[in-house]
Amino acid sequence: MKGRKISFIFGFIQCVAMTYVAWISHAYGSFAMDIVYVISQPIGWYLWGRQQQTHSFQPGTRKKVFFGAFLAWAIGWWVLAGVGGQLPYFDSINFVISFIAQVLYVLKYNENWSLWIFVNIANFVYWSILSVQMMMGDNTIGTLGANLSQVALQAALLFNAIYAQKVWSSGEANNEGGAA
What we know:
The relative contact order is 0.18. The mean pLDDT is about 85. The chain starts with 6 loop residues before the first helix and ends in a 10-residue tail after the last helix. The chain has one domain (about 5-50, about 60-165). It has helices spanning about 5-25, 30-50, 60-80, 90-105, 110-135, 145-170. The chain is an all-alpha fold. It is built from six helices and no strands.
């Protein structure tokens, strides 16, 4: 993951599939976010063809972005709890923090990976809890296969985010935006 445009093609396919899984699982935050992902993939493809360098926030700006993300998560938690979503505190991370991370990713800001690591850990826990609840008979929404597939996906995405943060922080992702 060195900042290649082709990631948007794979991202589009994954997002379409995940939208369905989120819908049948009543993961409303994830469902809403996946719709945003589907829309953002062609936008990212276009922007990455025009912009080669990655960017970083100044330290003061970075703190404001992370504080704003925390505040937005709390509001998202409240909203998702109000509509009856499953595990709204985790689902809010997926909905709100993922949105911020996706915008930063499309705009090629290094800080996106810190947020993705946080999101992937939260999503791994979220889907693990739903899987355990289903195996114990405490939850009948969605399917065990869909939930377990998400546990595996989140583990892979976490590995990717950790690796990508290392690559982007070292500057290796610069000038690769236009590579297909």
